[in-house]
Structure formats: structure tokens, C-alpha cells
Write a structure and sequence with these properties.
Layout: H1 5-12, E1 19-21, H2 28-41, E2 43-48, H3 55-65, E3 69-74, E4 77-81
Parallel strand pairs: 1-2
Antiparallel strand pairs: 2-4, 3-4
């Protein structure tokens, strides 16, 4: 990983929560939003509005389900990081050019 944990924590201080986990819990919609935000921004902050008792078990579960790193969990917020991975591009087949 090119970003150290210390650097990620410092960057996370400036973030506002972009995803909220409410009373519905960890739904497929929340996981999809997390996945989309991690793909776009790589470092995101999540806030547990409800389920404050379950946040200790949910935070690592979210990291596992989104293939991300749990950078830190402080209070009712958690910070996740997922490194950019370029999609694998299949080589194009050579198309013979026509002579004119």
C-alpha cells in the first residue's frame, strides 16, 4: 500500500461522513453505496447513526464485505480505504487492415 496508516488517518480528519448506517442496518443498498464511494474516492468516512452497540462488530464486517481496510473507528464513525485497482484490459485482437 502506498499510503501509510498515519497518512490515511490524517487525511480522514478532513472528511465528512459520506455514508450513514441507520436503523435498517447493513443493507445491500448501504453496501452498494459504500462500494461505489470507495471506488470513486478510495478513502471514506462512515457514520453509525443507529446500531451504536453493534458498531464494534459491524466495522470490521464492512471492511471484509467491501474488500477495504478499516483505517480507524472512533466514536460513531469509521474510516475505510480501498486502493485503486485498474481494471484488467484484455488485449485487442489484431484486425487485418484493408488495402485500398
Amino acid at each position: 500500500m502506498k499510503n501509510s496508516l498515519k497518512e490515511l488517518k490524517a487525511r480522514a480528519q478532513l472528511l465528512k461522513p459520506s455514508v450513514f448506517v441507520g436503523k435498517a442496518g447493513l443493507t445491500d443498498a448501504v453496501l452498494a453505496a459504500l462500494d461505489q464511494m470507495l471506488t470513486r474516492h478510495h478513502l471514506i468516512k462512515l457514520r453509525f447513526d443507529k446500531l451504536k452497540e453493534e458498531k464494534k462488530t459491524l466495522a470490521p464486517l464492512i471492511a471484509e464485505r467491501t474488500n477495504s481496510l478499516l483505517v480507524q473507528r472512533v466514536g460513531n464513525t469509521a474510516v475505510y480505504y480501498r486502493d485503486f485497482k485498474a481494471p484488467e484490459i484484455e488485449p485487442r485482437a489484431e484486425v487485418p487492415s484493408e488495402k485500398r
